[in-house]
Specification:
By secondary structure, the chain is an alpha/beta fold. It contains five helices and seven strands, in the order E-H-E-H-E-H-E-H-E-H-E-E.
Length: 172
């Protein structure tokens, strides 16, 4: 799916996407690490980062860009302490979709700097008006190596009470 192929040891099944993201953050974010979070954002992102000892770094997205994160906005927030960027496309709560061309720029930027991408793709099937979802990990092998895709069955398959989520990414 999404032109991505993973070995079983690269996939973790969790009790929902929130748990997958929380496990990821607790696994890789150390005290003082920066985690870039586009704003507006899903309420749990910064709290998970803070729980891990990290520092949420908020990037205000702009209405004129449909509230979709741009490379320029990301660049302005990255410091030597940046460990991760969380992207959500289609986005909760705005519904914005980061265009494929912009995802490619963001992915290359992160891959070149070794910044991990946590890609929340829970709303991938909920697109309208001709927008299409592109999984950032599908854009190149280099981007896939720095991306952990987080997803769940709850939104796309109307299984909210089942709490089934997963993360897929580099084996380590």
């Amino acid at each position: 799916e999404n032109q991505l192929d993973y070995e079983p040891e690269q996939v973790v099944i969790t009790d929902g996407a929130k748990q997958a993201l929380f496990n990821l953050i607790l696994s890789v974010v150390d005290e003082g690490d920066g985690v870039v979070i586009p704003s507006p954002y899903w309420v749990t992102y910064p709290e998970q980062v803070k729980f891990a000892g990290g520092a949420p770094v908020f990037v205000e997205t702009k209405e004129e860009n449909g509230f979709a994160l741009t490379l320029e906005e990301l660049e302005s927030a990255v410091t030597p302490k940046t460990r991760m960027v969380i992207i959500c496309t289609p986005h909760n709560p705005t519904g914005s979709v980061i265009p494929k061309e912009e995802l490619l720029k963001i992915g290359r930027f992160c891959a070149e700097r070794g910044i991990l991408i946590a890609s929340d793709e829970c709303y991938e099937y909920l697109t309208y008006d001709g927008f299409n979802h592109t999984s950032i990990a599908s854009l190149s092998p280099e981007i896939k190596e720095v991306t952990v895709t987080v997803n769940a069955l709850s939104k796309a398959f109307s299984m909210t009470g089942w709490r089934v989520g997963y993360a897929a990414g580099p084996k380590e």
